[in-house]
Write a structure and sequence with these properties.
Blueprint (H helix, E strand, L loop, with lengths): L2 E5 L2 E4 L4 E8 L4 E10 L6 E7 L4 E3 L7 E6 L4 E6 L8 E11 L3 E6 L3 E6 L1
Parallel strand pairs: 2-11
Antiparallel strand pairs: 1-3, 3-8, 4-5, 4-9, 5-6, 7-8, 9-10, 9-11
Length: 120
């Protein structure tokens, strides 16, 4: 079946950087869009950025500047480069992929999440 798996989370000090990766695998016909969201305890999941298979990028307004999304279509991987991290960036980061399969049509698939902790 289709799987979406994040990696690259961890603990970093304020001002540091992290690069998250998310790889999709399985019986994929096409990945239409991939993106990153994050969620802190007690809050709703919020969008960070998305990127289409054509390379069109959208950032949530509050996330412009320190976050950069990129994608490698050949490896079905999306990346999130995070710079100048702050304690309020501490969250579980989730990857979401809009994937077309021949059996299920197109639907969203979520990864299991990766924890990012920024210490002050």
């Amino acid at each position: 079946q289709v799987q979406v798996v994040e990696s690259g989370g961890g603990m970093v000090q304020t001002g540091g950087s992290l690069r998250l990766s998310c790889a999709a695998s399985g019986p994929i016909f096409s990945i239409l869009r991939m993106g990153w969201h994050r969620q802190t305890s007690g809050n709703a999941r919020e969008l960070i950025a998305t990127i289409t298979n054509g390379g069109s990028i959208h950032y949530a307004e509050s996330k412009k500047g320190r976050f950069t999304i990129s994608r490698d279509n050949a490896t079905k991987t999306v990346y999130l480069q995070m710079n100048d991290l702050k304690p309020e960036d501490t969250a579980v980061y989730y990857c979401k992929a809009l994937i077309l399969t021949l059996s299920n049509g197109s639907r969203d698939y979520w990864g299991q999440g990766t924890q990012v902790t920024v210490s002050s």
